[in-house]
Design a protein that fits this description.
binds calcium ion; binds MU-OXO-diiron; 13% helix; globular; 14 helices; alpha+beta; 683 residues
């Protein structure tokens, strides 16, 4: 570990810490490029010479030049971005460009099913199971019969803020945004239940009325999936010893999904929820020689050694089995008598069919086990494999892709396509090329002699397998998006304050990166299943000095940004970029000029990039989808008010009351955004 790493013995004290972030877990000796070769693309070239120059030098005669040619043609025709930028903002409100309107829809606590309990701070844990969850994140609009005014909105609820969830009991106490209250060392059962039901996914029918306003409507599809919902496990890890628990002695099932961040949409129209910072929900008190003794499949992911888990669910006063399973200590005589393997049921991608509310969600293990930010599919082509990309959002972790074994057939395609294939991890070479390294038995050193018994063992230990294969350590890979016009793949790399000068490489070009960047690549021969690619850096986050736009130009007041996270291409190939400056950094120091978290829109073809939206205080903008006609978009606002200091919470002084105003508890919610003249959003 470097000296800089040692500056933070407690990872929660580092400048870029956000609630739920796991400690750095990648202690592998994988080399950065800087260690192995002199790069011909020096970091300075990227930062000072401009991206276009760097790209031109690197990719003369390659696929990315095609992008540049498209750019020139598009620029002549005026480009895709047609609105005026909004300024940065630190107000407790949502601002969109002139000519646009915003409506708030489905905030946390909105009743959607069962007895339809109205939102109230006093709602019980059972009520919460019939209401929208907390902390809206990745989201997709599934039209009903192709409609642009009627569909199922499906979204993740990443985590909960206990102060707001239990505001009656937690009022007046000095509490941090992540803190829970214990009584005699125990958690109140109903608080635990409410927290578990505040997590997961909501499926909710939404419709536009004749007055133009959207509303949640009661519907048999409406459904909550929570931290308690029974789930099937499929793919190579199903039925193996890794998944044997007291609940599932045959290793085929588990309960619930956790910390669902970004999402995915399969070519067969189902929803994928990714499990991101799940490790901290578990603790393991096992010791050997008075030292923590966690198995590698827990230690490499940050399961807590000793102490209490993130919310202390294992301390629920009644000792219910569904709650105590978050203690992964070996307490029984065998794995079938305790929950030592419970963490192995998490870290996966979960498939949910929003049109079949009776179907159990399925965890698809062949997509790998890590801090899954989300999943993004390449456009499916009949007769070709299905390809999906995924980032592991933690400092120095990796970018992956899955290629199905069987070809896509639109008449028969189903989740079974995700159960057989090859998982790859990315290596970004210093010369602008890249390689996909197969994480498969016998390949890239993944042999029993090296500690990988079989495919299930590789998948449960995806991070360790990627270490062994020699993947490139990235600056916290978040969302990915595929350009519908060029096929280029974009990924946000949100920040990494712990990368030292000697760990800098061309793909992660800045030490102590506080602003983050966006990388992109094109696959060899334009084939998403290819095992090599060409990459470049699309933009560098930053202020007007440090930031660089798509053509290498300096960022301006119209588009400075930091910490890119959410990423989405609309059907006309506008790239929407959402930011997540961490709560500890927002509106302070170098980040003060950025204001509250925001959303930008870029035309990769012309390099035009403008700020479209600014959000209220303390939140991040995350989650975006649209209607098929492009005339309505949905955007999520997550954790407004989370920057309220413990003292201010105790004094009843909240930094945000969005969206209800007055003295209300702030609530995550969805924004419906449309043009007053009914035109395509962004154009
Ligand atoms: Fe949940 Fe990586 O953001
Ligand atoms: Ca995110
Ligand atoms: Ca966040
Ligand atoms: Ca983030």
């Amino acid at each position: 570990m470097s000296a800089y790493e040692q500056d933070y013995p407690d990872h929660t004290q580092s400048p870029d810490y956000q609630p739920g972030d796991e400690p750095r877990c990648n202690l592998s000796a994988n080399e950065t490029f800087h260690d192995v070769l002199e790069s011909r693309l020096k970091r300075r070239d990227v930062l000072v010479g401009g991206l276009a120059t760097a790209v031109g030098a690197l990719f003369a005669g390659t696929a990315l030049n095609t992008v540049a040619r498209v750019a020139t043609a598009q620029a002549a025709s005026g480009g895709l971005v047609g609105f005026q930028s909004v300024p940065v903002s630190s107000a407790d409100t949502v601002v969109v460009p002139k000519g646009y309107k915003v409506q708030v829809l489905a905030p946390w606590g909105t009743p959607i099913s069962g007895a339809m309990p109205a939102f109230a701070p006093s709602n019980s844990g059972a009520d919460q199971a019939q209401q929208m969850g907390m902390h809206h994140d990745g989201m997709h609009f599934f039209p009903i019969d192709g409609s642009a005014t009627d569909g199922l909105l499906v979204m993740n609820h990443e985590y909960v803020e206990p102060r707001f969830l239990h505001s009656a009991r937690y009022a007046g106490k000095e509490l941090k945004s992540s803190e829970v209250l214990l009584e005699n060392g125990k958690r109140a059962d109903d608080e635990v239940l409410k927290e578990m039901n505040g997590h997961g996914i909501s499926v909710v029918r939404v419709k536009r009325g004749t007055d133009g306003a959207w509303a949640v409507v009661s519907d048999p599809h409406n459904r909550r999936v929570t931290a308690l919902t029974p789930m099937e496990i499929s793919g190579p890890v199903r039925g193996t010893a890794h998944l044997v628990t007291k609940y599932s002695p045959d290793g085929t099932r588990t309960r619930g999904t956790l910390n669902n961040c970004a999402h995915g949409v399969t070519p067969w129209n189902t929803y994928l929820a990714a499990e991101e910072n799940w490790a901290g929900y578990f603790r393991n008190g096992d010791q050997q020689d008075q030292k923590p003794n966690l198995p590698r499949e827990q230690a490499r992911y940050g399961v807590r050694a000793g102490g209490m888990s993130r919310y202390g669910w294992e301390l629920a006063e009644g000792g219910a089995d569904a709650y105590v399973r978050f203690d992964a200590s070996s307490t029984g005589d065998s794995a079938a008598e305790d929950y030592r393997n419970e963490p192995n049921g998490f870290g996966w991608v979960v498939e949910i069919d929003p049109f079949d509310p009776g179907k159990a969600p399925v965890k698809r293990t062949h997509l790998g086990r890590f801090a899954h930010e989300g999943v993004v599919f390449a456009p499916a082509v009949a007769g070709k494999p299905v390809v999906a990309y995924a980032g592991d959002d933690a400092r120095f972790e990796y970018i992956y892709k899955f290629v199905s074994a069987r070809p896509y057939d639109p008449t028969t395609a189903s989740g079974a396509l995700l159960d057989a294939g090859t998982l790859y991890v990315a290596r970004f070479n210093a010369d602008g090329s890249g390689d996909w390294l197969a994480l498969a038995p016998g390949q890239n050193g993944l042999t029993p002699e090296n500690g990988f018994a079989d495919l299930a063992d590789i998948l449960v230990n995806t991070r360790l397998a990627a270490d062994k294969a020699g993947a490139t350590k990235m600056d916290r890979p978040e969302w990915g998006a595929v350009d519908p016009r060029t096929g280029a793949v974009y990924f946000t790399l949100t920040n990494n304050s712990r990368r030292t000068e000697d760990q800098v490489d061309p793909a992660n070009p800045r030490a102590k990166s506080q602003y983050g960047h966006i990388i992109r690549w094109t696959e060899a021969r334009g084939d998403h299943a290819a095992t090599s690619f060409q990459w470049d850096i699309f933009v560098l986050g930053g202020d007007e000095q440090a930031g660089r736009g798509p053509n290498g130009q300096k960022l301006t007041a119209d588009n400075i940004f930091a910490c890119p996270d959410g990423l989405w291409f609309d059907s006309e190939a506008r790239l929407w970029i959402q930011t997540d400056i961490g709560e500890s950094a927002q509106n302070k120091g170098d980040m003060a000029v950025m204001g509250n978290n925001q959303m930008l829109c870029a035309d990769p073809a012309t390099g035009e990039m403008r700020r479209f939206l600014t959000g209220p205080i303390g939140q991040e903008i995350t989650g975006i989808t649209g209607t098929p006609d492009g005339r309505t978009i949905f955007v999520n606002v997550q954790h407004p008010g989370a920057t309220t200091a413990p003292k201010d919470w105790a004094a009843g002084k909240l930094v945000s009351h969005w969206p209800d105003g007055g003295s209300a508890i702030p609530r995550s919610a969805t924004l419906v955004i449309f043009r007053e003249d009914g035109g395509v959003v962004g154009s």
